[in-house]
Write a structure and sequence with these properties.
Blueprint lengths: L7 E3 L3 H6 L12 H6 L3 E3 L4 H11 L8 H8 L2 E3 L12 E3 L5
Parallel strand pairs: 1-2
Antiparallel strand pairs: 3-4
Length: about 100
């Protein structure tokens, strides 16, 4: 997990995690994995549009990806069909760069 283009995925809906499993999600303490991804995190319960809006707000701020790097990351993301169970989509595709 040393690639500068590391991406993470949270495959759990926050509502289910909190209300059914009684998990504290998302866990808010800074984690090494989130620092390594520089914010490139997919959530099963958030749409690609929300990810793009969040990236636009964060781009270029200290500790965040630049506008160019966010654009590069988002250009590799493909959202599947919308979920009929709330926000998000049924699948997310990501084309990883091979070195």
């Amino acid at each position: 997990m040393t690639s500068p283009e590391l991406v993470a995925m949270i495959p759990v809906k926050e509502e289910f995690a909190r209300n059914t499993k009684h998990w504290n999600m998302p866990f808010l303490c800074p984690r090494p994995s989130s620092r390594k991804t520089n914010g490139r995190v997919f959530r099963a319960d958030k749409s690609l549009e929300l990810l793009k809006a969040d990236a636009a707000k964060r781009a270029g701020k200290p500790g965040e990806l630049s506008q160019r790097d966010w654009g590069k990351f988002l250009s590799r993301v493909i959202a599947g069909s919308p979920s009929k169970y709330g926000e998000g989509q049924l699948s997310v595709g990501y084309y990883a760069a091979l070195s």
